[in-house]
Amino acid sequence: MSYISRIKLTDYLSQEGNIFVTGAQSVWYAARAIRIADINANLNNTRLAVSGYPGSPLANVISIGYEHAALLAELGINFFPALNERTAVSIANGTQYVKRGVAAILAFKAPGLAQSWDDINVASAEGAHHHGGVVMVIGDDTQGSSTATWSDSKYTLQANLIPVLAPSFVHEIPKFIFLGNRLSRHSGCWVYVVFNDYSIAYRISAYPPHSRHIF
Asked: Can you tell me the distance from the alpha carbon of 183 to that of 30, in angstroms, rounded to the nearest whole number?
């Protein structure tokens, strides 16, 4: 068994000491960081919902949610697996009507963007709660290395004037998700964080305590 497969959820959600994470694990690290920031801002009644549909290169994000749903719920992070991408978008849209504030993170592969585009347009027009916010994590395969066809969704999103953040390395993923949530709250927009298969699936990065001031 490799070292990566032995890493526990509590290891990479920790806010103390050095932690080592893959791209998929860093999505959950970002979710934990959003919750901690809310608590520090006395937004103790807020919650965070994560939903999505499995598919390369983001399948491990969903697998982590299934495996650790109970522990995540104790941390104020609720995992809602979806039957498809359209259902995930509907779940995220619904969270923005909760008065106390529920942040949402969605995760699915690029083809799901096309499948759920009508739902995304409606949800984006309805906006995001000022104590909630929606970040959609989209997995692209620009090289066609892990899926049947290549994909690059940035152009589709940019053509529709949707804010897009594109991390290049694992250490940028939680930062961009966290800042995407803040942008969504302040602007009322849904914000998209687009990864390629290399940054999300294969790389690993270390987060020493002094590097976490962004949260």
From this structure: 14
